[in-house]
Write a structure and sequence with these properties.
2 copies of one chain form a homodimer. In chain A, 60% of the residues are buried. The first copy, chain A, has 4 domains: 97 residues, 2-Layer Sandwich (Uridine Diphospho-n-acetylenolpyruvylglucosamine Reductase, domain 2), CATH 3.30.43; 117 residues, Uridine Diphospho-n-acetylenolpyruvylglucosamine Reductase, domain 3; 108 residues, 2-Layer Sandwich (Alpha-Beta Plaits); 87 residues, Alpha-Beta Plaits (2-Layer Sandwich). The first copy, chain A, is globular. Helices cover 37% and strands 20% of the residues of chain A. The first copy, chain A, starts with 10 loop residues before the first helix and ends in a 13-residue tail after the last helix. Chains A and B meet through strand 9, helix 8, strand 11, helix 9 and helix 11 of A and strand 9, helix 8, strand 11, helix 9 and helix 11 of B.
Chain lengths: 466, 466
């Protein structure tokens, strides 16, 4: 795996801060190697750069205190939730202290009438939905991993049902955050909208821990739909599938999920889950609404799909049958890995206008073939966002460099199509080289904001705008 | 009308910059008093503070050039669209140059497949929807006034159908903007979502011209619904109406509009529009969807309304009949003004969690009565946002001070209910005193960002964080 650049270490400061933190936090402070490595990263494809120590914080005040101690000594602090980010967000290229927020795991208040909830950052999305079970409400953003809500906000996570319910950008009402000097701010109340000054909520969402550490979140909830229906349809080509997606979005059909799997991904799933889907591009859909509503939506989609050349349409509002239809997607990660047993998997994402999605996916598949990289593709087609999963032979010394070249090519191609180098994984270390290419002088504005709010560059240094 | 504070003027700089701009822009540069006054404000309730001159820009490069000239001489620049903002956003408390963007009025590109459009900032929302007429698409944000899209983005405008389609926060995909030093940036491409770095789009949306001047916008469009139905229902109390609103939102009924008028507003409309609505709180609704869908939505709402004590329910998907149902709302502004002919009208807004909406509205009406201010109320009830329209006797020397006290009381009360001092009008000059009260130390973050991006404080000084 490629080793990200290291940054200069402030050895004196680190030693001093660690001494104070050890005393202050006792057993909730660790320098153990396993713990440090685990906090450097878990799921990212980049090589591990562990922090020097980990503090397990239990309150906002403890986070603030830790940041103040680190700020006094010019030492980096890196917030940690569940470690499921993908672009090296948790690495410590200049060393420093990881603040583990997993113990801040309380749901503080459900406001059912207002469809909002106040949570601590270490609550995971599944834990929250479990907690909400009896309220008739749910939290909609679903990035796949059972990530912490603080981490999901920090990376502006999204997932399969963003097409209907939006991303973390849309579902975070306000946050409490600890700034680089230990100040605690709150970016808003619980109103559903506000025009009161700069949108600091949206500035912190997606800032990847580089501007502040999120210590509390007010999140938007949705009513659990009366009925949920699942559907699938095969298409002769990615172009035909994308045509159906475009029509679906254009007529405003409120699909809750619309996922695209390319032929290679379908083949992998057939093999792994013992299914016999046609090995051509597949769309999987979910409809939320009243019973009559989801039936009408499914029928409308069927007509669109058939017009676009779709075949093998199946739909059901029955929970078990719906589970079977969606099985292909739920098993996808392990099915894709099984294409090349023993391989390393690297998941990368780009996002383009949906009119360019078919072209982007086809070109990516072609380029991967040319470069000898096995790369099945899964997409949140309604958003124009997709993942290519590179399966790399760990024994092949050239594999990592080829993968990086392919990521570079995908990034350049997405930019040329007026898209973005990442729709949901974030920049971290892995995509930092492409941010300037995408946004040019706007990245200088990001740097100016970073300098203004964190003049010592101690908050998650080396990420977004290193 | 209250006179906002003035700020120190840089007379030498202003004289020098005006000389250069006069030469550069010829007939598109004006120092005429009428033009200057009209650019200081049109619809705000605050006293006029005209700029020293107006430049009528026609290109991004001309905006950048004007900003560079003003930056070289430390002279304020204030962007101007249609002048329909309400909180003194356009006033020039330190003098300077208003840049009128109305001539940048071209729709540059409609991307029907991607549901987006690229426009210049002087395009108004009606002009855009007129342009889109044959595409089956529309731009959803509707603040009432036929405002420019650049101005709507700058003030994070919203309006009656934000409950379904969101505010400018949700409907701006990316912007091009001129910064305080004349640099031109673009905050993104046309992807529907992105995790690439800080959300500069959302930072500029709602920054009221204090961080950059928006010179181009990529906006999200929606498909014109197959069917639109209108409905109305009267309620015995604001509490009963709010109960129906809460249930409606909670079950996820996708209402496109849900407007609340208090008894005083209904009385005014009866008198003005010769209607005979019961003079009790009224909800007006609009449903968008398929023909079956809107009928189902209207019926579901009827059941909710009746449960909450609603009477006189009427609904229709017929365009003419729907027009009659909504007539009450369309005539509202003039109807309310007619309550006290010759009065000055001051429109203020706050936004609270919808569980607190009834309490907030009732308390506001009671407080206004106590203070002797006639103040009918109209609300975007689904968002918890409402307007109180103060009708003030221009011959009463104490009226303005009383109005300011009532605004202060409403702001404090909304904050205590975890709401915001403005849901859609913005801060400008009028609400600047309450921003610190609402957000405390978070306003220091706003100040730090402002200083970092505009160290000379030349972009619309005296607004948001004066």
């Amino acid at each position: 795996m490629p080793a990200p650049a290291t940054l200069p270490r402030n050895e004196t400061g680190i030693a001093a801060a660690l001494g104070i933190l050890a005393q202050r936090f006792g057993e909730r402070f660790s320098r153990g190697e396993d713990i440090r490595r685990q906090h450097g990263h878990t799921m990212t494809w980049l090589a591990n750069q562990p922090p020097d120590a980990v503090v397990f914080a239990e309150t906002t005040e403890e986070v603030a205190e830790t940041v103040r101690i680190c700020a006094d000594h010019g030492v980096p602090v890196i917030p940690f939730g569940t470690g499921t980010s993908l672009e090296g967000h948790l690495n410590a290229p200049a060393g420093g202290v990881s603040i583990d927020l997993a113990r801040m795991d309380q749901v503080l208040r459900v406001n059912a009438e207002d469809l909002d909830v106040v949570v601590q950052p270490g609550v995971t999305r599944r834990q929250l939905n479990e907690y909400l079970r009896d309220t008739g409400l749910f939290f909609a953003v679903d990035p796949g991993a059972d990530a912490s809500l603080g981490g999901m906000a920090a990376t502006r996570a999204s997932g399969t049902n963003a097409v209907r319910y939006g991303t973390m950008r849309d579902n975070v009402v306000a946050v409490e955050a600890v700034l680089a000097d230990g100040t605690v701010i709150r970016t808003g109340g619980r109103a559903r909208k506000s025009s009161a000054g700069y949108d600091l909520t949206r500035l912190l969402v997606g800032s990847e821990g580089t501007l502040g550490i999120i210590t509390e979140l007010t999140l938007r909830l949705h009513g659990i739909p009366e009925a949920i229906s699942g559907a699938r349809c095969s298409f002769p080509s990615v172009e035909a599938a994308a045509e159906a997606v475009i029509m679906t979005i254009q007529i405003g059909l409120p699909v809750a999920r619309i996922e695209l799997l390319d032929a290679m991904a379908v083949g992998a799933i057939n093999a792994y889950s013992k299914l016999d889907l046609p090995e051509t591009p597949l769309l999987l859909l979910e409809f939320h609404g009243s019973e009559a509503g989801v039936a009408e939506q499914a029928e409308t989609f069927r007509e669109i799909a058939v017009d676009a050349g779709g075949t093998g349409f199946a739909a059901s509002a029955d929970a078990e049958e719906r589970g079977r239809i969606w099985r292909a997607r739920h098993d996808a990660y392990w099915a894709l890995r099984a294409l090349e047993p023993g391989s390393d998997a690297l998941s990368t994402d780009v996002c383009v206008p949906i009119s360019r999605l078919a072209e982007m996916i086809s070109a990516t598949a072609e380029k991967a073939r040319e470069m000898g990289i096995t790369a099945p593709i899964l997409g949140h087609a309604g958003d124009g966002n997709f993942h290519a999963i590179f399966l790399l032979d760990p024994a092949d010394p050239g594999a990592a460099a080829r993968a990086e070249r392919l990521i570079g090519w995908m990034s350049e191609t997405a930019i040329a199509m007026e898209g973005t180098v990442t729709g949901e994984h974030g920049i971290g270390q892995g995509k930092a080289a492409y941010l300037d290419r995408e946004l040019g002088p706007a990245t200088d504005v990001m740097r100016a904001i970073k300098r203004a709010l964190d003049p010592q560059d101690i908050l998650n240094p080396g990420k977004i705008v290193p």
